[in-house]
Amino acid sequence: MHFGDALTAATKEKSPVCVGLDPNVSKLPEGVSPDAEGMLTFCKGIVDAVKDVAACVKPQMAYFEQLGWEGMRAFWETCAYAKQQGLLVIADGKRNDIGSTCDAYAQAYLNELSPIDALTVSPYLGTDGINPFVERAVKNDKGIFVLIKTSNPSSGELQDLPCGDEVVHEHMAQIVEAIAAQNCGPESHLSCIGAVVGATYPEEMKYLRTLMPHVPILIPGYGAQGGGAADTVGGFIPDGTGAIVNSSRGIIFASSGSDWKEAAQKAATDMAADLASALQ
Fold it and tell me: Minimal CA–CA distance to 58: which of 7, 104, 125, 105?
């Protein structure tokens, strides 16, 4: 299924909650070993806890990569397990390059057999750092999320710089929309080409949504980073679809005790209710 359609269906069936899998080994809960095996146990437990309420999970590759090949084995097994449990899987690697190297990244993560449904992509090498990902996504019913206005405090050092009559992130949004509009799903009319816009910048998000009507938006920054449900509303389209909202620490580390799975399930359920209330 086209990624834009699959994402829309998942958010309608469950919720727009995206659970960030950030398995920092120094924060793993009671009874979970601080190594790659424990990381995998933890991620599978979180998947089991949230699979009935969340549309997708977003494994943060940095936490897996820091444990070398064993960590990357845990990453791929986590992605495969989440996919088996009916979740969409967004690999958060913020990949970017040009030419054959970019094509190799695209093939690595967005090939037809990969359990990964989408990949985050940095656009700041220009369109030749995006196009190979677009080509693979379109060919293999995958998706990408291009960084537009990120949730971190210093994002404006580059993304808010003036660029003619606009700023850099607005210009980038228009580039992404032009690509996205050519690759929309037949049911949702949303693209397989998405954007990342932080909940910590709600006013910018409202305007960016007008610039990107065909683009699904991945919204980080909810919860621990300071964004609330009301701050995410501008990223949705009028029917309440078109966006997913990520929470990592607020869900996966809701408890450090033996009840960590139950606490994660409750946190995800509470988040879904919070977003539903704001969208009404």
Answer: 7
Local structure of 158: helix, strand or coil: helix
Q: How far apart are CA 62 and CA 59, in angstroms?
A: 9
Rounded CA-CA distance 151/155 in Å is: 7
Strands (E), the chain: 17-21, 56-59, 88-95, 118-121, 143-149, 162-163, 166-167, 193-197, 217-219, 243-247
Question: SS3 for 148?
Answer: strand
Angle between helices 202-211 and 168-180 (to 10 degrees): 40
88 backbone dihedrals φ, ψ, rounded to 5°: -75, 145
Which residues belong to the active site? 94
Do 115 and 76 contact (CB within 8 A), yes or no? yes
Tens digit of each residue's pLDDT (9 = 90 or more) over 14-31: 999 999 999 999 999 999
What are phi and psi for residue 119, nearest 5 degrees? -135, 140
Other beta carbons within 10 Å of 146: 27
Residue spans per domain, the chain: 3-279
Mean pLDDT by groups of 10 residues along the chain of 280 residues: 98 98 95 96 98 98 97 98 98 94 97 98 94 97 97 92 95 97 97 97 96 98 86 96 97 96 98 96
Decide which of 3.30.750.24, 3.20.20.70, 3.40.50.720, 3.40.30.120 is the CATH code for 3-279: 3.20.20.70
At 18-66, the pLDDT tens digits run 999 999 999 999 999 999 999 999 999 999 999 999 999 999 999 999 9
